[in-house]
Amino acid sequence: MKRFSRRICVGIIWFGFTLYILWLAPLDRPESFTLLRHLLTFQLDQVNSYLVAIFWMMGVWPMIYACLMFADGRMQKLPAFLYFLVSNGIGIVGLAPYLALRKRSQIFIGQVDWFLQLLDSHFMGVFLSLCTIGLLSYALLTGDWPNFIEQWRTIPFIHLITLDFCLMAVLFPLSPLLDDDMARRNLQNAWVFWSIALLPLFGALFYLCLRPPLQVEAREQGETP
């Protein structure tokens, strides 16, 4: 699929999901604020464990994207940090515009500071993987799946946050952001991309745990490659 077509797909998903949110209007429902209060104040006995896991993994997903976005953002005019912050509040609605509007860049020019080193480290991938495994284990061991499915059908807040979580997984390989990050690390194997794309969430986590270091172009520093 050509990059332009992929940008259009990202834009269509963003537009369609935004309209869907406006149609369901979860903020008009009092149960949405009740659930949010229980989640933010750790009153976990009041909430199905599957919702707890999805809610907190919606914090893991922006961090996964951040491990690619902040290096990419050095090559963009778009403020990657702003889109990252917004995505922590409103999920894919805040993140998708960056994925759709960014320009393709497969090199990194500049200094890899301590913040980028942290995001680029295998430690970050392992940390996010452990958080994900812990949350999924909590949901599987203590959650009520039939009850969660019923809530997903009847409560817009739960319905939308679950779809948001799934769209985070869909857009990770759909956007050229992943292709460009792989190119900056001299990863040209198609099977690596498809291994990530066909294993939602965990493919992205494995990539962060195993990817080679960022390759830095030195032209702007006047150095020879």
Question: How would you sum up this structure in a few lines?
Answer:
This protein is mainly alpha-helical and 225 residues long. The protein has helices spanning 3-24, 30-40, 49-73, 80-90, 92-101, 114-120, 122-142, 145-154, 156-174, 177-183, 190-197, 202-210, and strands at 108-109, 216-217.
Arrangement of strands in the largest sheet = 1-2
Number of distinct beta strands? 2
**Uncertain residue ranges:** 220-225
**For the terminal residues, how far apart are their CA atoms?**
32 Å
Q: Name the shape in a single word.
A: globular
Strand content: under 5%
Count helical runs: 12
Q: What order do the helices and strands follow?
A: HHHHHEHHHHHHHE
SS-based class: mainly alpha
- What value does the average pLDDT take? 91
Give the number of domains: 1
> What is the helix fraction of residues, given as a range?
over 70%
Radius of gyration from the alpha-carbon trace, in angstroms: 19 Å
Report the sheet with the most strands, covering strand number, pairing sense and barrel closure: 2 strands, parallel
Outline the structure in words.
The protein is mainly alpha-helical and 225 residues long. Helices cover 71% and strands 2% of the residues. Helix 7 (122-142) runs antiparallel to helix 12 (202-210). Mean pLDDT is 91; it is low at 220-225.
